[in-house]
Design brief:
Blueprint (H helix, E strand, L loop, with lengths): L3 E4 L4 E4 L8 H10 L2 H17 L7 H15 L20
Antiparallel strand pairs: 1-2
Helix pairs in contact: 2-3
C-alpha cells in the first residue's frame, strides 16, 4: 500500500512522494504537504515556465522566481500565465 499525505493543493489525502524532491527544510515540507500528482503537475508547469521565459537557473533571481511560482501553484493562487501555451481543453480540432 502506498504512503499518503494530505495534499495542500487538492485538500485531500492522496498518494505521497517517495522522497523529498528538494534538499533541506523546503524538501521536507513538500514531502509532508504535497501529493505525487500535484508535484508532477508542478514539474510540467515549471518546465514550460523555464522554457518560455528562457530562465537560467544558475541565476539567483530565476531560482527565486521559480520558487515563488511553485508556492503560488501549491497554494492554489494564480501563477504567471504563459503566452505561448494553449491548454488541450482550448484546442479546436481541425
Amino acid at each position: 500500500m502506498s504512503n499518503t499525505v494530505f495534499c495542500k493543493k487538492y485538500q485531500k489525502d492522496m498518494e505521497a512522494l517517495e522522497r523529498a524532491p528538494l534538499p533541506g527544510a523546503k524538501g521536507q515540507e513538500i514531502l509532508q504537504t504535497v501529493s505525487k500528482q500535484a508535484w508532477q503537475e508542478w514539474q510540467l508547469l515549471q518546465t514550460m515556465m523555464i522554457n518560455e521565459k528562457q530562465l537560467n537557473l544558475m541565476q539567483p533571481e530565476s531560482r527565486k522566481y521559480v520558487m515563488e511560482q511553485m508556492e503560488k501553484f501549491f497554494n492554489n493562487e494564480a501563477t504567471d500565465k504563459l503566452s505561448g501555451y494553449v491548454s488541450p481543453d482550448d484546442m479546436v480540432e481541425l
